[in-house]
Amino acid sequence: MEIMIISAAFLVLMAAGIPIGTALGIAAVVTVWKFELGVGMIGLNFISGIASFPLLAIPFFVLAGVILEKAGLAATIARFFELLVGRATGGLATVAVCTCMFWGALSGSGPATTAAVGLILLTPMIRHGYDRNFAGALIANASDLSIIIPPSIAFIIYGNITGVSVSALFAAGIVPGLLTGAGTIGVSYYICKKRGYRGNKNQGSFGEILAALKGSIWAILTPVIVLGGIYAGIFTPTEAAVVAVFYSLFVATVIYRSITFRDFIHILVDAAVTSSVIMFIVVFAGLFTWATSVIGVVDTAANFLTAVSPNKAVLIILVNFLLLALGMVLDAISISFLIMPILIPVLSAFNIDPLWYGVIFISALAIGQATPPVGVNLFTAANLIGGDVDSVAREAIPFVIVDAVVLVIISLFPALSMYLPIMAGLYTP
Question: Per the structure, how many domains does the chain have?
């Protein structure tokens, strides 16, 4: 009965077009009122939901990403890769993927990466004969890497929910992120060769490549400084986010001199809006999770999953299918708060390492960012090319398939995720 009431409230609100954060909040409040859980607990959950030191990293990483975007650093990275590999078959497609990988490490946001890279590379790709829907789908899919390759907002959320070290999660995401990027490049190369898409006519000379590297080195150094400081034990992920803000300000104002004080005010507003949306969902999703836990929904769902199959591999496969399906209709943050409280006792019962599963979990959610009907990256890309989401989604199918293949590989070989954090002394199984 409890499950039916809270599920019905949530689904009706979603069907009515209510934003996900608001739908979660209303459903949670209805549950608190219906089952007399205490209205006063709503305020307490609001406070406890955001009063977390690890979550402070989110607004700082968002601010650093917006500063670097406004400073024009994405263009310098794209220029370097364009001179390096732009002449090869499908060269601009490879440039797009590589730029998304690097820029994703700076922004930590899929839609932000899609917008930043799309504004720079979509026009040149279309001008060189690339199908506009293919170009949009490629960038939308490659931008999924932003929540796998660290620093990642999704990993921060996962670590906050499960108690797993965010530093270890960052290290665990490196190899799977590179594998996913390599798979995306492979598929794009095959499609480009089949369709005859070519890159630039002129290969960059050694001097031009060196000059482009010099121009982009400040952007490339950002994840090196942030992640290097974390792995060396110099600062925590939250402190690293603050360092990223000051570094990005230094680069934008002293090195490139590309933003003014007025620009900085707009940057603060943009970062505040983005951070507020994320934290709005975090607060209401946390309240929803607490309400479902108190009335026993979480325990019931966990017991059901435990009873579905005694086989660990079968359970992981089934949950992966569930995550892929949920990723088509919900955002990654909401899914994390809805599903992870249920999965935590299940992982413990099956002796599944939470760090390893964290990479599987986030990789599955990343695929959802490029799948309709709520694939935010697809909507961003479609808006940039002035097309429709369905056409972009059709071109994204091969990339979604290769992402799913990489997800299977990560699920079969835990060492791909576990090796780096263990070797770095960040995690002990």
Answer: 1
Retrieve residue 84's tokens.
Answer: 């390096």
**In 10 A of CB 374, how many CB atoms?**
16
- Count of CB atoms situated within 10 Å of the CB of 69: 22
In angstroms, rounded to a whole number, what is the distance separating the alpha carbons of residues 192 and 204?
A: 21
Residues 289 and 298 sit within 8 Å (Cβ to Cβ) = yes
142's tokens = 């490659």
Percentage of the residues of the chain whose pLDDT score is greater than 70: 94
Do the domain assignments include residue 7? no
Closest among 398, 53, 411 to 239, alpha carbons compared: 53
Exposure of 20 by Cβ count < 10 A (0-12 exposed, 13-18 middle, 19+ buried)?
buried
pLDDT tens-digit readout, 160-188: 888 899 999 999 999 999 999 999 999 99
Residue 345: is the preceding peptide bond cis (ω within 30°)?
no
Whether residue 320 contacts residue 411, with contact meaning beta carbons closer than 8 Å, is answered with yes
Whether residue 374 contacts residue 421, with contact meaning beta carbons closer than 8 Å, is answered with no
- Which of left, alpha, beta for 413 (phi over 0: left; psi -120 to 50: alpha)? beta
- Contact (Cβ atoms closer than 8 angstroms) between residue 376 and residue 338: no
Question: In the numeric block, which tokens belong to residue 108?
Answer: 């930590």
Q: How far apart are CA 85 and CA 81, in angstroms?
A: 6
pLDDT digits (tens, 9 = 90+) for 404-429: 999 999 998 999 999 999 998 888 88
The tokens describing 309, both together, are 């199959």
What's the pLDDT tens digit per position in 360-411? 999 998 887 777 666 778 878 888 888 788 888 889 999 999 999 999 999 9
> How many other C-beta atoms can be found within 10 angstroms of the C-beta atom of residue 106?
29
CB atoms inside a 10 Å sphere around CB 37: 16
Position 283 in a domain: no
Quote the domain boundaries for residue 394: 53-275+297-423
Give the HSE-up count for residue 272: Cα atoms under 13 Å, Cβ half-sphere: 6
Tell me whether residue 128 is in a domain: yes
Cβ(58)–Cβ(274) below 8 Å: no
Rounded CA gap, 111 and 277, in Å? 13
Does the residue 66 lie in any domain?
Answer: yes
Whose tokens are 């809270």? That residue is 6
pLDDT band for position 122 (cuts 50, 70, 90): confident
Q: Two tokens at 289?
A: 């999770």
The pTM assigned to this predicted structure is 0.84
